[in-house]
Design goal:
Elements lengths: L11 H24 L28 H26 L6 H25 L6
Helix pairs in contact: 2-3
Length: 126
């Protein structure tokens, strides 16, 4: 493979795109704050109930299971984020054995964690 060393000048177009995107986003946000309507309505502080005024207090407790499932989702979602760079570097012959061993250890830890959560009943909804 013929690899060319990257210089800082090679990344200048990317930097310009990022700066322009951030500037446009900032301008849009500032304009919406300046030009947007400022109406204080009673309905803004109420919970949305399909356009119908609520009959009683809408605040109620959520079971802890919702938060537990959310945390487990984030953990396993991060696992997938770590799998992508590994899959892209697997074609490199110099790193193939090392990266395969590292990912094997990582997947073993994740599977052991999943089995532990399963046995502890973290995934049971009852």
């Amino acid at each position: 493979m013929n690899e060319v060393a990257n210089t800082p000048q090679d990344f200048l177009p990317l930097l310009v795109i990022v700066v322009v995107a951030l500037a446009v986003a900032g301008i849009v946000i500032v304009l919406s704050v300046i030009l947007g309507p400022r109406r204080e309505l009673e309905a803004k502080s109420e919970a949305y109930e399909s356009g119908i005024r609520p009959f009683a207090d809408t605040r109620r407790r959520f079971p802890v299971q919702y938060y537990l499932i959310a945390v487990l989702f984030i953990i396993f979602d991060i696992e997938v984020v770590f799998l992508y760079p590994w899959a892209t570097t697997l074609h490199n012959d110099a790193l193939k054995k090392v990266s395969l061993a590292a990912m094997g250890v990582f997947m073993a830890v994740v599977v052991i964690g999943f089995v532990y959560e399963w046995r502890k009943g973290a995934l049971d909804w009852d």
